[in-house]
Write a structure and sequence with these properties.
The complex is a heterodimer of chains A (289) and B (268). Chain A is 72% helix and 1% strand. Chain A is mainly α and 289 residues long. Chain A has a two-stranded antiparallel sheet. The longest helix of chain A has 33 residues, at 59-91. Chain A is globular, with a radius of gyration of 24 Å. The model of chain A is unreliable at 284-289 (pLDDT under 50). Chain B is 76% helix and 0% strand. Chain B is an all-alpha fold. Chain B is built from 14 helices and no strands. Classes of the chains: A mainly alpha (289), B mainly alpha (268). The interface between A and B is large, with 98 and 96 residues.
Chain lengths: 289, 268
């Protein structure tokens, strides 16, 4: 192929320019900001590593980090396992297969505000349908979002409902790549469907499992909107997550440097997880393929 | 091939539970406040008062307009910019191509949350806060899209291009008359995905838009619900209105959307 240096650069410029302006530059700027104290109104003051020492000594920071992690623990395993099981069901020989897939995927494309307000409505203490269903089986409990013990699990359940369809789609794609002849051979050898699932589908989907796991972890670590809309971080900050803390420190209290120090910490965590994702999606010579 | 009735039954049962919240949203939107509070399952009659209220009294229509405008323009922009950049990375053999590939790849590792504050300050300096462009322009760059489409371009056999070059076709002709039609599946997938994710984005418009008139639908509804916290009939009617276009869009493009998700393993 002839070298086409000029058009190569020219065609990349519109993207490259905006990419540097809106992603690379803010990243560098953010790094710089984390060494300053700045309230947006007065001049920034260089304070060295003070923001970071403050962060490591800030109990709220650790608390929000723990809440984020707790959310990851609550959502990731369920979303991965349930995603796999539902995909198995929707991939088996059933009627209305296509319709079911569409229905299952639909909540995923609803906006976060819609999803959260439906669930806030259903969790509503006095006339919410969820309390009513529990009453019907003899459990009188109403504090879904107001009790610190159930608030985060309630947000997690909403999120599971909202995003499960995405994992189902990834698993369905993986399942469809398994050649039917493998199943046929197993059937001839006398394997039942349970064995076929656990000795064929589970190991052959190794790559899909890890991809879903990593993508789900990345998505769950970014939790913000659900908490912001459903509880505002309450009761008593018991559902406040890291991104919300950064958001509050930055945009409500204008502690720009401190917020950015925490954002940088978040970036490092995400960077580590992203490297894993990168190896899974584009690694192993994927660039060449 | 025998289809299983038992598994179909299990699937129907699960889907029924799964879809229930959406069903509940729709029927609740027709209820009066009294019917909501007294926990009546079905409304005694279908009344459109909640819808009427939403359309007449609130800013919903304006937010709807904002969301549509922003989603359409940024989707158009991201597709054009992505086509050029991915063609450059995927098909043009030039010095520095490899470097630009890895440079682009690095972008997928930068989460918006980590740079939201400096990016907000940048937009402030550029005087783009509380403006449509402040949302649209940053949406127009997506390193993941560039990587997906450039992989697609790479997979197109050389014969197509060579034949056109022998006929003396220029770079732009080859790109738009040969490459773009061939890469259509990936381009449709990123457009659909871009539209849906822009339409639904919450964090970025929350930061950029300060004037209530400039809110997008998700941000506007979130504040709206805050002030109508007990009016669940109205809230649900607002939800239905906000969900309807995305539902229609989804029905038309669901195959491309699903395909798009599979191509990139994209997730918000």
């Amino acid at each position: 192929m002839k070298k086409r240096t000029l058009s190569g650069y020219l065609f990349y410029i519109p993207f490259g320019f905006l990419y540097i302006l809106f992603l690379i530059y803010p990243l560098i700027q953010g790094f710089r900001m984390s060494f300053y104290e700045w309230d947006l109104f007065s001049e920034p003051t260089f304070i060295g590593l003070a923001n970071f020492t403050k962060m490591f000594n800030d109990p709220t920071f650790w608390e929000t980090l723990w809440h984020t992690l707790y959310f990851v623990i609550l959502t990731v395993p369920i979303l991965v396992i349930l995603g796999f099981l539902i995909a198995l069901l929707l991939n088996s020989k059933i009627y209305f297969q296509k319709l079911f897939r569409v229905l299952f995927f639909f909540p995923y494309i609803l906006s976060i505000t819609i999803v959260c307000s439906i669930w806030v409505f259903m969790y509503q203490p006095n006339f919410g349908i969820i309390s009513k269903i529990f009453q019907a089986v003899g459990i009188n409990y109403r504090g879904w979002l107001t009790n610190p013990t159930t608030a985060m699990p309630a947000i997690a359940l909403t999120t599971i409902w909202w995003t499960l369809g995405f994992n189902v789609i990834l698993y369905l794609a993986g399942l469809q790549e398994i050649s039917p002849s493998i199943y046929e051979a197993a059937t001839i050898d006398g394997a039942n469907s349970f064995q076929k699932t656990f000795f064929i589908a589970v190991p052959l989907l190794k790559r899909t499992h890890s991809l879903v796991l990593v993508l789900q972890t990345i998505a769950s670590l970014q939790i913000f909107g659900q908490v912001y809309i459903m509880t505002g971080g309450g009761p008593n900050g018991k559902t406040r997550v890291l991104i919300q803390y950064i958001y509050d420190q930055g945009f409500r209290y204008f502690r720009m440097g401190y917020a950015q120090a925490m954002a940088l910490f978040f970036f490092v965590i995400m960077f580590i997880v992203s490297i894993v994702q990168f190896r899974l999606t584009l690694g192993t010579g994927g660039e060449k393929s | 091939m025998k289809k299983s009735k038992l598994l179909t039954f299990v699937a129907i049962l699960i889907i029924f539970i799964y879809i229930f919240p959406i069903f509940w949203m729709v029927i609740s939107s027709f209820k009066t406040d009294l019917e909501v509070i007294t926990q009546k399952f079905f409304p005694s009659k279908i009344n459109f008062n909640n819808y009427k209220y939403i359309l007449e009294q609130s800013g919903v229509l304006r937010w709807f307009f904002n969301s549509t405008l922003i989603s359409l323009i940024s989707t158009f922009g991201v597709v054009i910019i992505t086509i050029f950049a991915s063609y450059s990375l995927g098909r043009l053999n030039f010095r520095g191509n490899k470097f630009l590939f890895y440079f682009t790849l690095a972008g997928i590792m930068i989460p918006l949350q980590a740079i939201m504050i400096p990016r907000y300050l940048l937009l402030r300096d550029l005087n783009l806060l509380n403006s449509y462009w402040g949302l649209i322009i940053p949406y127009m760059i997506n390193p993941m899209f560039v990587l997906i489409v450039s992989q697609f371009f790479k997979g197109i056999p050389n014969e197509f291009e060579e034949a056109a070059r022998i006929d003396g076709a220029g770079e732009l002709y080859i790109l738009f008359r040969i490459m773009v039609p061939l890469a259509k599946p990936s381009l449709v997938a990123i457009s659909v995905f871009s539209f849906v994710s822009t339409w639904n984005d919450f964090l970025w418009p929350l930061i950029v838009m300060t004037d209530q008139k400039m809110y997008t639908l998700p941000v506007g509804l979130a504040t709206f619900y805050g002030s109508y916290s007990m009016k669940y009939g109205i809230t649900m009617a607002g939800n239905v209105i906000a969900a309807l276009p995305i539902f229609i869009f989804f029905m038309i493009f669901q195959e491309q959307l699903i395909q798009g998700l599979n191509v990139g393993g994209l997730k918000e």
